[in-house]
Amino acid sequence: MQEIDKEGLPKHIAIIMDGNGRWAKQKGAMRVFGHKNAIQSVRETTEACAELGVKYLTLYAFSTENWNRPRKEVDALMKLLVSTIRKETDTLQKNNIRLLTIGATEQLPPICQKELQEAIEITAPNTGLTLILALSYSGRWDIEQAVKKIAQKVEKGELKASEINTQTIEAHLSTCGIPEPELMIRTSGEFRISNFLLWQLAYTEIYITPTLWPDFRKKDLYDAIVSFQQRERRFGKTSEQIQTEKKKNKVKTFA
Ligand code: IPE
Ligand code: IPE
Ligand code: MG
Fold first, then answer.
1. Is residue 76 in some structural domain?
2. Which helix (H) or strand (E) holds 35?
3. Measuring from atom 13 of ligand 1, which residue has the nearest CA?
4. What are the CA-CA distances from residue 230 to residues 47, 50, 108, 223, 227 (Å)?
5. What residues bind substrate, as annotated (predicted)?
6. Domain carrying residue 142
7. Residue 188 CB–ligand 1 contact under 6 Å
């Protein structure tokens, strides 16, 4: 934690929480056991982000494709979601954390929707960390729903096709108003995006750790942030340009 530069924190961290099933299997247990033990990792990560002053944390909890898992596992995950939200809302309140969701949440069981809605409403005035749960989410779903909304506006004559630009698309994505993640972490050593924030990850720094999600602790988050802070983000420019800009900014801050 001491190695983290507090001035250079990512504003938004996104995480693909992966490896619950393998973690359970290693212990000779059922996959659901891994999902249950994932909750402590969610707690620690959320708490660490709130303590550090990270403004947004997006957790990929259930993908569009995860609906294709065995019925028993999907049911267990939904139950776990309900009980966790019920249990944790007080903690969110105490820590000034605001809860949001992205995804086709109308596909979740009604009881999940109700619990989520309540927690979202209760925590709405909180001004600390914004915790965004990606549920029944996929990057393609997000782009698809944005395109539909834009097309409807064009149909109604509210918008011209020639006016559509990057900002128009961003304004219709489920993450509208939320800055793009600067850092994306994936646990369990898989080198893929699995249909997570496809548009939003365009220039995100990616950090992949072999640690399985139920083993992920505050220290693992700190390691990811330290790695992020050692990188040079060039956004298509040359390293020399970036260095010159940095020097200029320093002069400005001291002036
Ligand atoms: C991530 O762990 C949790 C969800 C996708 C809901 P997995 O359940 O994918 O665990 P592995 O990848 O099979 O180990
Ligand atoms: C990605 O993990 C989705 C979530 C973590 C919610 P998966 O385990 O579903 O991804 P794949 O199938 O290995 O790509
Ligand atoms: Mg997985």
1. yes
2. helix 31-52
3. 21
4. 23, 22, 40, 11, 5
5. 19-23, 31, 35, 63-65, 67, 69, 186, 192-194
6. 7-254
7. yes
